[in-house]
Specification:
Layout: E1 3-9, E2 21-27, H1 31-44, E3 48-51, E4 57-59, E5 64-70, E6 78-81, E7 84-88, H2 93-102, E8 105-106, H3 118-124, E9 127-128, E10 131-132, H4 133-136, E11 137-143, E12 149-152, E13 172-179, E14 181-182, H5 185-202, E15 209-212, H6 222-228, E16 235-236, E17 239-241, E18 248-251, H7 257-275, E19 284-286
The protein binds flavin-adenine dinucleotide.
Flavin-adenine dinucleotide (FAD) is lined by residues 15, 49-57, 71, 89, 114-117, 119-121, 123-124, 126-128, 166-167, 172-173, 203, 205, 209-211, 284.
Length: 289
């Protein structure tokens, strides 16, 4: 096993930098070890949680009773064949986008600043600046809950706005292939720089967060609704609605998962009161709060 630890603080593995201990934390070395871990959990009747870069996750202060399995460095290989780029689940989107740039392939620029892994990006159908994973996904390698391996496409994953069927069906993403197009490297690089510059300017990247806290409600922008409800800068404990971008809940320093969850609930309540709109979280929650 690449890494196997007991009582591992999940604050070390989430971009919110909060979360209590997982009973067991494992980074398998290969697919064989991954399957073995899952079989062991199943035999013991303990749950497991797959994570990638932890950039869309809020894990409770009580931690996770079971095994957190992270597909990390050992699952980060990226290969290129013509206009198709294939990455294992643990590869970071930024690394995949940089490899695309190196090979003069366009289509992945939108993803270069999303701080997640390929696995997490498929689960969330991650997207930004008019692009999303669904647009470029050629195929995904999936480990089904019954242990069989499957290759499917965007339709088979039911990719929609920040959603897929992966978690609901207990599927594990092992890797994915993306169909890109030949492009001009200078233009690809310029686009990546422009999009990442826009992120820096608009998003509170200097604080721990999990990106946009809420999904965009049909016909509205979550950040604007939150701002209009007078909640920009509003805080509970160490959690704050970012002053820079009201769509982000940030950890100002010593936030607990409870602070963040309480703040999310209060924002949902006040926005509903103010505008009659129900904000749905984009971030995923797990563990004991
Ligand atoms: C500063 C910042 C900016 C962001 N900007 C964007 C943005 O522009 N667009 C956007 O869409 N998102 C954005 N995000 C959110 C996040 O980066 C994406 O949702 C990303 O795709 C999550 O990937 P991850 O590897 O971190 O997933 P994790 O947070 O580790 O996991 C997310 C979900 O996927 C599951 N999962 C992870 N890996 C696997 C796997 N291999 N198999 C099965 N299930 C798995 C987890 O159980 C969990 O339910 C941002 C986050 C931050 C912190």
């Amino acid at each position: 096993m690449h890494i196997l630890r007991k009582n591992e603080p999940m604050s070390l593995h989430t971009t919110f930098r909060v979360g209590g201990p997982a009973d067991v934390y494992a980074e398998p070395e290969d697919e064989w070890e991954l399957r073995e871990l899952m079989d062991t959990c199943e035999a013991a009747g303990t749950p497991y949680l797959l994570i990638g870069h932890g950039s869309n996750l809020l894990i409770g202060d009580g931690g996770f009773r079971g095994t957190v399995i992270c597909l990390g460095k050992a699952f980060s290989e990226i290969t290129v064949d013509g206009e198709v780029i294939t990455a294992r689940a643990g590869a970071l989107l930024s690394a995949v986008a940089n490899t695309a740039l190196e090979h003069g392939l366009t289509g992945m620029e939108f993803a270069s600043g999303i701080p997640g892994s390929v696995g997490g990006a498929l689960v969330m159908n991650a997207g930004a600046y008019g692009g999303e994973i669904r647009d470029i996904l050629l195929s995904a390698d999936i480990l089904e809950m019954d242990g069989t391996a499957d290759r499917t496409d965007a339709e088979g994953l039911e990719l929609g706005y920040r959603t897929s069927n992966i978690t609901a069906l207990g599927r594990t993403v092992l890797g994915a292939s993306f169909r890109l197009k030949k492009g001009d490297p200078a233009e690809i690089e310029a686009k990546m720089k422009d999009l990442n510059g826009r992120r820096k300017e608009k998003q509170p990247l200097e604080y721990p967060s999990a990106g946009s806290t809420f999904k965009r409600p049909e016909g509205y922008f979550a950040g604007k609704l939150i701002q209009d409800a007078g909640l920009k800068g509003f805080s509970i404990g160490g959690a704050q609605v970012s002053e820079k971008h009201a769509g982000f809940v940030i950890n100002k320093g010593n936030a607990t998962a409870k602070d963040i969850l309480d703040l999310i609930k209060e924002v949902q309540r006040r926005v509903f009161e103010d505008a009659g709109v129900r904000l749905e979280t984009e971030i995923r929650m797990a563990g004991e709060f």
